[in-house]
Design a protein that fits this description.
391 residues, mainly beta, six-stranded antiparallel β-sheet, five-stranded antiparallel β-sheet
Length: 391
Amino acid sequence: VLINKDVQGVVLSCDASTGHINENGEFVFSGNSNGKLTATYNSISTTVNMVVVQEAEIFIRLDSILIDNHRNYPIEVQSQIGLNTMTVLPSALNWTVRNPSICRVENGILTGLQNGTTMLVGNLGSFKDSIRVKVEIPASGRLAYDTFADTTRWELTSSLASWKTHFAPADRPANWEHGTTIKYTFQSARSPFVKLERSLPLYGLPDTIQLVVNTGGANFSTVIMGMKTATATSASPVTFSNVGATTDSRLNVPLSAFISKVSDLVNFPVSLEYLTFYLNSSTHIAGQTYTIGLKEIALRYAYITTVVDFLTAKSKFRVYPNPANGAVLKIDGPFTLKSQICISTINGQTIGRYETIGDIAEVPIQELPSGVYLIQIQHQGKSETHRFIRH
């Protein structure tokens, strides 16, 4: 009977012909014959026999992984022996990174270096397996990830067609530099609601997802954000009660609200699947039009303490769509014939320079790998910088 799982203070030893005990106190098979493994605690010892069998099949637990440059990942290698799944030390394998500028492996521990995707191959004896590695490194501690600039990506529904629910970006609050609104003409209904749906994978490994919303003075009995992990078959609802104010409301969803084991990278990327606003009928009047302001879906990364956000209220230019996954990035604003545009990585490496013609500039981005970039606009002796994400 196992009385206590706390084995601190237990010292392992083994026959040299069978293996050795590494610096972490773990047994490593490195010999070629049977032997004994001894565990000692103070003056008490116990011994088990170890029998060397034919080489067992081993495998990497995950076939793909998303990491950043902050969280190191001891690569999970396992072996199936009978009905038992055993852990294999990743440091025992020889690792090859196809693109070593993206990530590195030292002693079986994977670390992201820069944004991009590559393959990682592990070898041990006759065993060979690979894992796809994607690195996403946030440029700041808070990222305005989706600003509802492209509402065509969202499916908008409500309780009744007679509400004539629609997006109205021109009616967003005057102090918002981005965002949109939803307008609806209320009619009585059972459990009245307004719902937005879209499968939106979130960038990197955020600690918190934040929705910034303004109810326009109306009151919602419940707001539900549907969050989904990479391996889940359906979204988990995260609920906020009695949301309503004429000022902005910030609804924060920590990962622990829908992930039981946040440290397990099998859960990433996480995605936002839907937003549902259940209306409080007692605060609504039939036939009256109401407005829901949607400013942004922001991501927070707790390990980055310096927050730099280039999207300020003083911006003269608008960069869209952002995030971008098409062939061009559009910029509109008060361009002149001498306005110039420069795209660079977050590390300052210049990728391309362009001159503007007309009020709307189109910058080609089809050759850019996925990641975060900076776009600098030089205009009338002044410089303005925006951040954008390339999917």
